[in-house]
């Protein structure tokens, strides 16, 4: 789906599909260089938002990209800021001794990723690094060490390239700011 298909739902396009593609190739070259020696990392995608970036990053990488998936959820909306996370779908892969690269669409407060990184480290992974296409530095509640960042963006409500509003807009090709009238009154 393109921005033009969405009428006035979008306030503006923040990062175009072409810009995402260029940046993704740069990130892939960095990742290839960093994992040059030894076995390629296991890519761990966090459902559902990371589906697009995982699909594109994996195809861009010039090594065999083994993929696994997790689904996580905060313990209820009221405790979202607690940083306590529940695993809805766990990995099918044993990661003890392996290099793991978490692949995410966005880091907002950082709470999910801080928890996830620690969780995967506690399973004995040799290393756990994070790759995210988007990050909102001004929304950070905890410091998370992120190895690869596509774009730092403002705290606007963004959708597209995997990011949703009420499960919509995920398949928008670009990253865009949602117009306030779409979610006003909620
Ligand atoms: C998003 C994103 C991260 C998390 C980041 O997922 O994919 O997993 O939020 O937020 P944080 O930095 O504040 O913890 P979301 O919970 O929206 O689920 P989704 O991927 O299924 O859309």
| Radius of gyration from CA coordinates | 16 Å
Unreliable spans are none
**CATH fold node name:** Rossmann fold
Q: Mean of the pLDDT scores?
A: 94
- Look at the helices and sheets and give the structural class: alpha/beta
Q: Main sheet: which strands, in order across?
A: 4-3-2-5-6-7
Measured as a percent range, the helix fraction is 10-25%
**Assembly type of the shown chains?**
single chain
CATH class: Alpha Beta
Given the structure, what is the number of helices?
4
Spell out which ligands are present.
1-O-pyrophosphono-5-O-phosphono-alpha-D-ribofuranose
**Main sheet properties:** 6 strands, mixed
Cα distance, first to last residue? 25 Å
Strand content: 25-35%
What is the string of SSEs from the N terminus onward? EHEHEEEHEEEEH
Shape: globular
Q: Which architecture name does CATH use?
A: 3-Layer(aba) Sandwich
Count the domains: 1
The beta-strand count equals 9
Q: What do these coordinates show?
A:
- With 186 residues, this protein is α/β, with parallel strands linked by helices.
- It has one domain: Rossmann fold.
- The chain has four helices and nine strands; from the N terminus they run βαβαβββαββββα.
- The protein has helices at residues 17-34, 51-60, 111-122, 180-183, and strands at 10-15, 42-47, 66-74, 85-89, 99-107, 127-135, 148-152, 158-159, 175-178.
- It has a six-stranded mixed sheet. It has a three-stranded antiparallel sheet with strand order 1-9-8.
- Strand 2, helix 2 (51-60) and strand 3 form a beta-alpha-beta unit.
- The longest helix is centred in the first third of the chain and has 18 residues, at 17-34.
- The relative contact order is 0.22.
- Bound molecules: 1-O-pyrophosphono-5-O-phosphono-alpha-D-ribofuranose (PRP).
- The site of 1-O-pyrophosphono-5-O-phosphono-alpha-D-ribofuranose has 15 residues, from strand 2, strand 5 and helix 3.
